[in-house]
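Box S2. Input/output pair 1.
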Amino acid sequence: MQSPADRHDRHEYPAHWEADVVLRDGGTARIRPITVDDADRLVSFYEQVSDESKYYRFFAPYPRLSAKDVHRFTHHDFVDRVGLAATIGGEFIATVRYDRIGADGLPASAPADEAEVAFLVQDAHQGRGVASALLEHIAAVARERGIRRFAAEVLPANTKMIKVFTDAGYTQKRSFEDGVVRLEFDLEPTDRSLAVQRAREQRAEARSVRRLLAPGSVAVVGVGRAPGGVGRSVLGNIRDAGHPGRLYAVNKAFPEDLKEVDGVPAYRSVRDIEGPVDLAVVAVPAEHVPAVVSECGEHGVQGLVVLSAGYAESGPEGRERQRALVQLARAYGMRIIGPNAFGVINTAPDVLLNASLAPEMPRPGRIGLFTQSGAIGIALLSRLHRRGGGVTGVTGVSTFVSAGNRADVSGNDVLQYWYDDPETDVVLMYLESIGNPRKFTRLARRTAAAKPLVVVQGVGSAPQGHAVRATRLPHATVSALLRQAGVIRVDTITELVDAGLLLARQPLPAGPRVAIVGNSESLGVLTYDRCLAEGLRPSPPLDLTTGATAEDFHRALSRALADETCDAVVVTAIPAIGEGSPGDAELAEALRSAAAAVPGKPVLVVHVELGGLAEALSAAASTSPQALAKAPGVEGGARPLHPAERLPASAGASPESPESPESPESPESPTLEGADSRLIPAYPAAERAVRALAEAVKYGQWRRESADPGKVPEYDDIDEKGAAELIEGLLERGQGLTIGQAQTCELLEKYGIHVRRALAAPTPDAAAEAARALGYPVALKATAPHLRHRADLGGVRLDLADEEQLRRAYAELTELFGQPEELRPVVQGMAPRGVDTVVRAVIDPAAGAVLSFGLAGAASQLLGDMAHRLIPVTDREATSLVRSIRTAPLLFGWRGSTPVDTPALEELLLRVSRLVDDHPEVVAVTLEPVVVAQHGASVLGATLRLAPPPARDDLGPRTLPAY
C-alpha cells in the first residue's frame, strides 16, 4: 500500500495561494507554492544557507540535499504535503512546508487534522519577518485543507524560530523531550493572532512608505539633455529643495563622456552608479519603463516613483502594461508610487525631498496630504501655500503623496505611515476612489483615534486607471460608514483645507457651545444662524460696535474663553475707520494673546476685507515671548505650555517655527509648544468657519465616545449551532436563494427574533379561518410585490374586530386591486400600535457587513433617512444608530406623542447584528415593518437571503492587492 507521501499529485497547482507580501523592513517578497520545476532553485537556495541554519533545520550536520531530498521537497499533492517559498527576483529566500500526520505521528490523510511544519530562511534574509509571513500563509493553506493544528520540533538554541511561533498569537502548548522543544498550536485565528498580524502589517507597510519618502539617495531616470521636460524638471526640484543625500541623473542617451547635468552626476544606466540608490524617479516613455525597472531591481533600488503616463488610464492595453509593471517591481522587492503620479514631497529638515512636479517646496508643517490626482494635488498645495484669498496662514505640509493610478502604494499604505509619524498631526486625503473600503475603514478608525483624518471622497465612477472593488452600497452609505470610523467627511477641497487648518492650529472643542464676539452686528447674526444650521449651540453674539479697539477685542475674547459655558469662540471682524481703530497687526496680537492664556479652547476668526489680518494672525514672529508680553491686557506674557497640559483630544499640532526655544521640561519640545498651534485660522466667510468648527465638534465627540466603544452583548437564548445546521441544510439546495417565510421565521427564532405569524388567505373563508386561529383583532394585507409595505395604497386593513369586518375588507381589496392570486393576501394578528421602522443588514463584497435602520415608508424610501453601522455592532453603537436618523424624535415623544420602547429596538438591532456576524452566509436580512410600541417591538415581516459568503481577505494572511 502506498503511503500518502508516495502518491501522485492529487490537485492542480493552487494559483490562488500566490501572494505578494511586505516584509518587516518595508521590502516585498512573493510567496508561492513549490513545484517540481523548482529543483534547481531549491538546491541553489540551500547552498546559500549557513551550516548553523542547516543544523537547526535537520538537527544534524546536513551540508547538501540528496536527490531524494530534492524530490521530496519539490513534489507535493497540495493537500497532505504542501511547500511554500518566499522569492525575490525569482530566487528562493525562504521555504516552509507541512506534512499531515496522524495520532501516531506518521504520514496520514484526512480526516487527520494535524500537521508538522518546518521552516528554513536564508541567513541574509533572517530578521526581515519572512518566517512570520510564511507562517501566516501556510496556516491559511492548512485551514483550507482541513488541518486545524500544527506541531513543530525546534532545538532549544534556535530561539529565533521559537519566537516566530510563540509571537504569532495562536493558542499553543509547549513541551520538552529528548533535548527538543515541541510546540503545538491551533490554527483558528484568535483576537491576539489577528492583533499581532495587523500590528506587523502596520509596521511593514509604514516602513515600505518611509523608504519612498525618506531615501538616502535618489536617481532620476529620464533626465533630458536639454533644459525642460519632466525628468530635468524633477531633478532640478530635488536639487533646489536641498536634499542632503546623493542625487544622480540617468539617461541611456547621455554621451559617454558626459559627467554632470546641472551639477548632478550623470550616468547612462542605474547599473553604472557605484553607490546604493534608495529611490528611483522614473520619467521615461511607458514602453521603456520595464527595462528601467529591471535595471533598478538588479542594482538593489528600494522603491520607485513612476511619473510616466500611458498605463491603465489609457485603456485595456495600458491596464495590462500596468499589471506587468507592478509584477516586475514586486519581483525585485520594490514598491511603486504611480504610475502617472505627480510625485512625493517630504519637508522634514533631514530629508528635504521634492521628487515631484511642484516647482516650489511647500512650507514645512504638520499636515500630511494625499491625493490621487495631480491636478487636485496642485490645487491643495497652492491653497495651503498661499497667504492671500481664502484661508491663509503659515500652516504647512509634513509629507505629500500624489499616487496617480495607485497601482501599488495606495491611500491605505500612506495611512499606515502617518498613523505613527511624529511629524504629522493632521491627515488630509482627496480620494477619487477607495480600492479596499473594508481595510480603509479599519485603518481610518485606528488613525482617527490618534489624529484627525479629513477626507473628500469622489462621488462618481472611479477614474479609469484605478482598480476598485465593486460595491452595491450607495455613496451616502459609504460616507456614513466612514464617519462611523471617525473620518471627517467633507465635500470640497475648500472644506478640506478649512477643516485641516483649524485642526492643525487649534485644540478640539469640548462640546458644541459657541461664543460669538465681533465689531459687526450683522456678521455676528449671520455667524449665529450658521451655527444653528450646523447643529451647534451658539450664545447670542456680543457686538463690540465698529468703534472697538484691540484692547476691547482682547477683553471680550478673554471673557468668552473664561466662560465655563463656552467651548469655542468665533471672532467676527470688519474694517473700521477712525483714529482709534486697531491695525491688522495690533488686532491679531490682541486676539492671539487672549487665546494663548486659555489654550484649551479653539478660536476662529471671520474677517471681511481685512487683507493684512490673516497674515498677521499667522505671523510666526508674533508668537515669541516678547510679543506676547506686549499684548494689551497681558502682564508678563503667556505662561509656557507644556505638552502634558494639552487636552488629550487635541490635534496635537507641534510648532513649525525652527526658531522656537526648547523647553527645559522636554528637550524635544519648544517652550511655546502651544504657540504655533495657537495660530488662529482666519476665514473670509462665516459659513466656512462654522462648517469647519462643526466638523471639529463632531470629531471631538467621536474621539470621546470611541474611548469606550461598548461591547457586543451575549444572549443566553441564541442557538448558534442550530442556526448553522439550518443554514447548511438550506444552502444544499442552491448557491444563493431567498428562503421561504417558514424557514425565515425558524432561522430568526434561533437568535431570539420572533416574527408574528401571518397565514395565507387565498379565499374569504380561508381568511376567516386564519383569523379564528390567530384571534381577533387582525390585519389583512396584500403581499404582492407592488403592494407590500404600501399602506398608503390601501393594501393593508388594520384592526378588523370580527369576521364581518374581515370579509368586507377582503371584498374591498379584491375589488380595488384584482383577484386573490394577484394580491396574495395574508391575515396577521394585530401588534400594539407604535412607530413603524425598518431594519436591514447586508454583506457587501467591498465594505463588509452593514446594519441599517430607519423609519418605514416615505422617510427611508423617499428621503433616504437611514443610518448605518458596520457589523458587529456594540451596545453603544446600537444606541447611537437609533438616534442618528433625522426622524428619530418620532421615537422619543415628539410633539407630545408617547415615547416608544427604544431599548427593545436596540436589542433587536444587536440580535440581527449577531446573526449576520456569526453566519456570513446570511448575506441579506430585511425586517419590515418593525412596530416599536410603548412596550416592546413587533416584527411583522421578514425576508432573508442565503449565499456562500464573500471572501474575507481581512481575516486571511497579509497580502498586497493582486494586480
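Box S3. Input/output pair 2.
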Amino acid sequence: MKSLSKREHLLATSMIAGFTMLTSAGIAQAQDQAEETTEVSQIVVTGSRIARQDYKSSSPIVTVDAQDIQATGSVTIDSLMNDLPQFTPSISSTSNNPSNGGQANLDLRSLTPKRTLVLVNGRRLVPSNSDGSADVNLIPAALIRNVETISGGASAAYGSDAIAGVANFILNDQFEGAQIDAQYGVTDRSDGTTQSYTLTVGGNFADDRGNAVISINRSTRDLIFNSAREFSAISGASGTTPMGSVVFDSTNLPDADVVRGYFGDSALSLTGAFGFNNDGTVFSHSKALNFKPSDGIQYTGFYTPGSTYAFNTGALNYLSLPMERWNVYSSAKYTLNDNVEFYGDALFNQYTASQELAATPAASTTGFRAPSTNPFIPADLKAFLDSRANPNASFQLNKRFTDLGGRHAEYDYSVYQLTGGVRGQVPHSSWTYDLYAQYGRVSNIETQTGNVSRSAVQTLLDAADGGASICEGGFNPFGENAVSAECLNYIGRTSRTVTTVEQSVLEGTLQGKAFDLPAGEVLVALGAQYRENSYVYASDPSLARINPRTPHLGADGLPDGGTIGGVEIAGFNAADSVNGSVNSIDLFGEALIPVLANLPFIQSLDLTLGYRYSDYSSIGGTQAYRADIDWEIVNGVRVRGGFNRAVRAPSIGELYSPAGVNFPAIGNASLTSGGGDPCDVTGMYRNGADKDKVRSLCLAQGISSAVIDTYTFENDQTNGWSGGNIDLEEETADTWSLGLVYQSQFQSPWFSRLSASLDYYSIEIENVISSISISDALSGCFNGTGENPNYDASNSYCQQFSRDPNNGNIIDAIENLDNLGVLKTSGVDLQVDWGIDLVDVGGPDWGTIGVNAVVGWLGSREDSVVAGGAMIDRKGTISDDFGNTFPEWKSLVSVSWAHGPFTATTRWRRVGEMTIYGSEDTLDATHYFDLSGSWAINDVVSVRGGVNNLLDQEPRTWNPGVQANTDPSTYDILGRRYFVGLTAKF
C-alpha cells in the first residue's frame, strides 16, 4: 500500500483530504501551521489546481466538518452553510413562496446561487435548474467529511459559474468496517419532526490495493403550517377573496350617489374592489364598509373596521416544507501500480418535497368578465350595475377558488451522478496525471393541483343559466356558495411537468515541477475539459396554453366591454416548454512561482498565475485569469491576496426560455415607502413634493380623469412576462482580495493556539444578466432615483409596463433578460481561533477549551439597474424581494469543551440590524444560541444531542415580508428545537 504522501499527491483535482482544526470549536479558516512531521503531504487546496507541500491558500477559505454539521441537528447541509457570514441565506427548507420545488441553493456573497459553483469531491455537481444552480439537497449530509468554501472569483480554476466562489463538499470515500447512525429532532411545539438513518459499510480488498465503500441514508422532515406560529398565522394579505369582488371599469362607473348612499360614505372611492357578503349584500374593500365576516382567521385576520379589507392567505401556507429523501453513495479505487490507480464513485438520490399555497386567486388580467345578465347577480350589486352609463356592459370579476383547496405542488426528484477515472504518476518523472469522465442527471416530476381553467369559468359565467346546464348547480361567484363536485371537476385542473437536467464532463490534468528557481520549484498544472449541459422542461399543455385575447361578447353577440383570453391557467404560473443545450471546451493552466525566499522579512514570496480559455457553443470564446501572492513575512505572519477575472456564460434558461407569465410583487402603497402603484392616492408618490407631476404622468398613462383623484390599487402583485434572450453575452467579474494571517509562535499555553485572519474582498460584476423588475421600472418611471426628472411617459422605464384601459391597473410588466447593469460588493472577514488545555494554565485536568469566531462586515452592496444608471447601496437593508437581505454585520461564534469521551459546544449566531428597504423602519439585531454535546460511551457507541435556538427567539417581522411576515431564510422560524443522535461503529 502506498504511503499517505504519495496517495494524496495524486489527488490533483480533489481538495484537502482532511483539515486539522486549531480547536474543536468547529469552523476554521485555512491558515499556515508549523507541522512537525517526517513526511510532508502534497494536497490540492480548493481554488487551485496545484498540489503543494502545505495547505496554505492565497485566497480566503472557510472549512466546516462533519462535527459542525451534526451540531446543527439538521438533515440538510444548507442550515449550517447559511449561518456563515460569507453566505446569504437562499432557497431552503422554509422557502414556500417563493420556492424552488423543495430545493436548497447556496448564495455566496449575496451574488445569487447561479454565481456560486458547487463541487463534490472537487468536481461539479450536476445542476438542478435552468440557470445552472445546484441543489445541495442532493448531497448526503451524513457522508460529508468536510466542506471548503472559497469566496471570490475562481473561474480560472473551475470555469464558468464561479464568480462568487466555490463550495466544495468532500464525501467520506475511505472507510473500513460498518457504521450505523441515527438522529431524531423535534421543535418545542412538537412539530417539524426530522429523522435521519444511515448505514455505511466499507473495507479494503486485494491486499489493501483497493478500497470500496457504500452508504445508504434515509432522512425525513415533517411540514409546519404558517398557522402553527403566532407571527405567521396572519400573513399574506390579499384583495382577492373567496367571496368574490367586482372592480368597476373607470370608463363605466356606477352612479356615485347610489354607491355612496348605500354605504353612507360621501367620499368613498368608486375604483376600489367591492365584495359580496354571503347574504347577498355588498361590502367595500376600502374602509371595510358593510363587511360581514365569516368565522375563521382567514376572513378576520386582517379585518379592521375603517381600514382596507384583505383576505388572510397565509394561515394555510407551509412554513416549513416536508421532505423524504433516500441517498446512496458508493466509491471504489484500485491501485494497479505506482503509475495507475483506477477510481470511481456513484451518487444516487431520490427525494420528494411539496409546496402549499393559498387557494388559486384570479384577478385583474387572470380574472373574468361577468355579463350583466348573469342569473346569480345579487339584487344590491344589480342596483349598482344598473346605475352605470351603460348598464348592459360586462364587469370585472375577481375570485379566489377555495372550494378546490390550496394550490399544492408535489416534487419527485430522481438523481444520479457517475464518475470514473484513472490517475497516477507519469512513468519516469515526478509529474502526475488525472483523467476522468462524469455524467449526471436530475429528473423532477412536478404535479400541481388546485389550478383553475379560466376558459371553463368564463364559459360558466357567460351561460344564460349560470352554467347549470353544463354542470350541476352552475357556478355562483357572488359570495361563498356551494359548488358541486361536477362543477369543481369542470373548472379544476391537475397539471404535470417534467424537468430533466443532464451534465457530461470529460477532463484531464497534468501537473508537476517545471524547473527550479533560486527560491524553489516552479510547479505547473495544465488541463483540458469538455463539458455539455442540457435542460429540458416539458410543460403541461394546460400551463403552456395561452388563449387569444378577444373582446367579451354580450348576449347579443356584440362587444360589451373588456377582453377575455390570455393564459389558460390561474393558479401556478403558466410556462411553456424549454429544450436547450450548451457545450464548451476549456484549456487551462496554473503556475506556482517562488519569487523570493529566506530573506529579511521575506521568509517566502510566492506568485500564483492562472489562465483559462473557454469556447462555448452559445457565445464563443471567453477568458479568465488570476494573479495571487502569498508573502510570509516572518514565521507566523503572512500576507495574501490578488486579482481574479472571472466569467459566467449565460445559462440554458437565460438563453432559451420562452416568455412566460409571472406575478411579481410591487408591495403596498404607503406614505413612508415607495411600494405599490405610484398612482395610488394613498402612496408616497401622490403625496410627495412632485405630486402634481406624478398625477399628470398617471393621466398620460391612461388612468381616467374621472378617477385620478380617488384611484387606489389594492393588490401587492401584478402580472408580467419574463423570458430568455439568445443574444446574451457573458458576465465578467473582477475580484480583489488582500488579507493578513497570523499564527501564534508563542510557547505560552495561553497563546500557543491563537490564530487569526483578516481578509478584505471587492467584487465587481459587469454586463450583469438580469431584467428590469417591475418595482425598478415603477421607481424609474416615477423618478424614484432621478431616472425620469421630466416625468415623461415615453421614458424607457415607463415602457416596461402597461395599464388596463378599463380601470388603470398595472398590467403586462416586461421583465425579459438582458445584459444590463453593474453589481458590486465589498467587505471584510475576520476569523479568530484560540484554544487552551486547562491543566496547562494552572487549572484542573478537565479538558480543553476552544473558541472560534467568524465575523463578516459588509462594506458595500451596490447595483445599478442599467449600465451607467444610479448605483444603489443596499448595505444594511432587507426587503420584500427574496435574496435581498444584506446585514452589515453577521457573525458565528463557537465555544467548545472536550474532555475524554465528552464534548460540549455552544454557538452564538448573530444577524445584524437592518433597515427595511424603502422605509425608515429598522429590524433589531437578532441573536440565537445553540447548545450541543456528545459522549463516546465506548469505542463502538457514541451519543449526541442538542438544543437549537435555546432562548426560543422569534424572527423579526414586518409586513408583508418575504414570506409569512418575515424572511424565513434569514431568520429562525421554527423556534426552540431538540435533537438526539447515536453512532455505532463496528
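Caption for Box S3: Residues 1-41 have pLDDT under 50 and may be disordered. The first strand starts at residue 28 and ends at 29.
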